[in-house]
Please model this.
Amino acid sequence: MHELSVTEKILDIVLKHARMNQVRKVMSITLIIGEMSDLENEWIQHYFDYLSKDTVAACAVLKIEKVPIVLKCNPCGQTMEIRREEIGGTCCSGCGKAGDFSIISGREYYIKEMEAE
Amino acid sequence: MSSVKLIEVKEAIMSDNDAAANDLRKRLSSEKTFLVNLMASPGAGKTSLLLRTLAALKLDFNMAVIEADIDSVVDAEKIAATGVPSVQLRTGGFCHLDAAMVVKGLEAVDTASADLVFIENVGNLVCPAEFDTGAAMDIMILSVPEGDDKPLKYPLMFSKCRALIVNKIDLLPYSDFDMSLFKQRVYQINAGIRIFEVSCTSGEGIPDWTGWLKQSVNHFLEKNLIQSMTPGTHN
Model:
């Protein structure tokens, strides 16, 4: 449900950069989103199309690059990539311990770039 | 023919909210007000935990509560009955609070004299996790009937909180909730989190939680007192 407010924020940032670069039309926007986030591609595009229709970003395609969840085992330093469904169920592939990890990636939430003319 | 160019943006989607949240944190730090953002599913026991917490700490701190729940006239009345001021924040159907809404809610709170303010966030485990409210501490409640698999479904929420209160432990005998498996799942995404097992009905475990919170608030107040007495250390 928070996709609508998130989409407004994305559009604000995109329009700001469009003005700064004096572009006529934004064709695509690339978002970097960690796997731990619940952002839904389909909804974001729907909301974006609706919100952007009278702007230079109308019809722009949102591309979402997902960043995998990577954990680091605190006792031994081993890093490992896991799928979202594996959260909470894995032990360290290095030392075998469970439940003492730092999150290295998977919480990203930013706009990387946009294509415009 | 027009040329297509690639514009590097590299900007956090939440940058506006993050900036507003950081400003609020700075302001509250100088006013020596510790803001706690309480998040949970509907029915997990947010109001019950607040009532227990207010009762335990009323002699220690000047407190206030910001209620974000839309249908919480009942909640607000319960809080008001304790003598602690509570503010009803209209979220307009929003699924979360952001920093700007919290700033609005704080207008009705005398932050200069309050030591400890609680935000009762909107009841859900998804949206509030994405928005920094400007609180000094994020905490959450998970109640036993919700199940021990929730860290797998809502990892972001569990990964960002400093403390997790497992409520309704009096229902454990009637449930297949596996506490050790649950904790293992939580620690995997948040090794530093403090977990408190409580029952707001019986009061079991409440002193551990309120004792820890009291210590955290005192630590915050002392740190900010020292900063305000030491020239050149504020930002």
Q: What stands out?
A: The first strand of chain B starts at residue 5 and ends at 12. Residues 15-216 of chain B form a domain with the Rossmann fold fold (CATH 3.40.50.300). Chain B has a mean pLDDT of 90. The interface with chain A takes residues 2-17, 94-96, 98, 126-127, 130-131, 151-152, 155-156, 159, 183-189, 191 of chain B (CB under 8 Å).
